Amino acid sequence: MEEAQAALRGHERVLARGGGTKPALSSPPEGTVTLDVSGLTGIEDYDPEELTFTARAGTPLGEIEDALAENGQYLPFDPPLVAAGATLGGAVAAGTSGPLRYRGGGVRDFILGVRFLDGEGRIVRAGGRVVKNAAGFDLSKLMVGSAGRLGVMVELSFKVFPQPQAWATLTVDCAGLDEALALIGALATAPFDLEALDLEPPGRLWLRLAGLADAMPERLERLEGILERSGERLEGEQEGAVWSEVRDFAWVVQDAAIVKVALVPKRVRELEAKLEPLAVERRYGAGANIAWLAWPGERAAQELDDLLRSLGLAGVFLTGSPARPMVGTHRGGAFAQRVKSALDPSGRFPEV
Fold it and tell me: Which domain covers residue 277, as residue numbers?
């Protein structure tokens, strides 16, 4: 902690870097020094009965998942890039969640507290270590997606969930995008719990269930009844492997950049009309509320920025080397600037 404070105060411009799995966000711009926090590791407190834990920001997510699994628990926000070495602090800074956020929610829904260094090197504490202590203005949630511009996170507390007894997946092929989106809309209001709902354009739906193993066959049949069609069923190790590949972007080719775009299902058609002619690989997660793009390496980031601006959508590069990771139309700038001015009055952390 003291070393991080000294390093921060010793430079005019600083950007924290943990596992380096999202280089578009952690690569420092010119004139900015990298503050390596990968050494801030370790689970400091874990109470399985309370379903909470506290860990240092540089702790690899894989280490946390292993500790939780020993007690039959897991991270419901399903953080991506675990296999690549992503850290807890990096997941918060990038605001990234995986397919399971469809039901459970994203990072912001499970963070309880944070301890971080502000722009002056002072220790700031927000929230708490247990659910009942997280009251009042929740500054910890503002750190989600902050991309290192509000402070250097050193410790984080989260709530977790019990691991379901069994998982199963149903894949169905629709006639096209319109039919797929109609089913997504119907499922959003159906009396049926899904853990994940992804759209692989133009019309393949991936639906994930969790619960008691004995009840799974009946639930799959019921889901097929709601959809009024049958589909391919996946269970066991194969099922888990498929979603691990989705979560860790195994479908993204090596020279492509991973981009996250926030949207709502009714905007998917507009975005598809722009992306399809460009042959951009993509996948829609969280019931088509997030678009994951594999932006080709030969295409400029400015082209995507212009495309998203024309639709009024906002995106962020996780990988690649864009001039600025944030692309498209981002709102809430005035409020965000006031918060940044309060936490970083000297402008030590770079803008994104």
Answer: 257-328
